Amino acid sequence: MAKPPRLKYVKHVRAKGKLYAYFNTGERKDGKVIYAPLPRPSSPEFFVAYGRMKAKREKRAGYSLAAACQAYEESTDFVGKADSTKKLYRYALRTIEDALGRFPINDLRRDDIQRVLDHGLPSASAHNIFLAVLGLVYRHARRQGKTELNPVRDFDKIKGGSHEPWPAPVLEAALVSEHDRTRLAAHLLYFTGQRIGDVCKMQWSDVRGDEIFVTQQKTGKKLWIPMLAELRAELDRTPKRGMTILTREGGHPMTDQVIRKELKAHGAAMGVEVVPHGLRKNAVISLLEAGCSVAETAAITGQTYRIVEQYAAQIDQRRMGRAAIVKLETKRKRENG
């Protein structure tokens, strides 16, 4: 009995004395490769069908995840979203492209995604928005007939702790929010690095020249915090309705529960779970990344050196890691001419 010709993507099966051919589509369902039946190998239709399936598979295999990200960004679904949401989604899309963009869209596997989640994302909120946007990219690609995969299906969101920093687009959106109290609270929390209880108790009389005076409730520390121009400008545009800077209707002092609720609503509108205390960590990270020493950073936030040093160690590791890769790339280019 003659052997069937060896063809790319084709497997042959003999059953009850007959030869059957199946085409490996390159797609999977429930982890199993999907094979499509071909006409009988002896029939004239066999090579016509094989050529059509092969061309379709190879055309699809050339469609990268980076191309899928671009297609989603140009879609009506993306374009119709709020500007703040688009800014956050673009941030996630660039992360997807950098980490996974080279993959053909049908070749991405769960372990590829898991490696990014384990080593490439700084926080729970970044984890969740990465998965959400990757899921939207694949949904759009499925609607366009580019894939049948849904590689994020079995991943769960993770709960963020009280110290998770806000993703940069969510922070920047809060600083320009059209909701006056959200915008003011974000400025005070981020640019002073204080806890929400201390921020809610800040009074106009605490603003002295270019500084804000704070007595921390938790530690009793007394701090003179110099104001950035952005915070100064925000205070200048804020009407003085009462003794405290943050007020309710009628100028009464604001409770931290209301601010928590409003800031969480801001994050939720952008698809991210955030808490006010996250802005305290944003402040520490920004100060350290700007080149401030541990002592200088602690002078603003009132934290112990030990706590600030923990943040500094993480930042130094990332900075040194980037420097190491730059040196390795330079060495490789030199060796390869």
TrEMBL record:
Gene3D superfamilies: 1.10.150.130, Intergrase catalytic core (1.10.443.10). Residues 163-325 form the Tyr recombinase domain. InterPro entries: CB, DNA_brk_join_enz, Integrase-like_cat_sf, Integrase_catalytic, Integrase_recombinase_N, Tyrosine_recombinase_XerCD. GO terms for biological process: DNA integration; DNA recombination. Residues 63-142 form the Core-binding (CB) domain. It comes from the Bacteria. GO terms for molecular function: DNA binding. The keyword Lipoprotein does not apply. Keywords: DNA integration, DNA recombination, DNA-binding. Belongs to the 'phage' integrase family. PANTHER family: PHAGE INTEGRASE-RELATED, PROPHAGE INTEGRASE INTD-RELATED. This is Integrase. It comes from Aurantiacibacter spongiae.
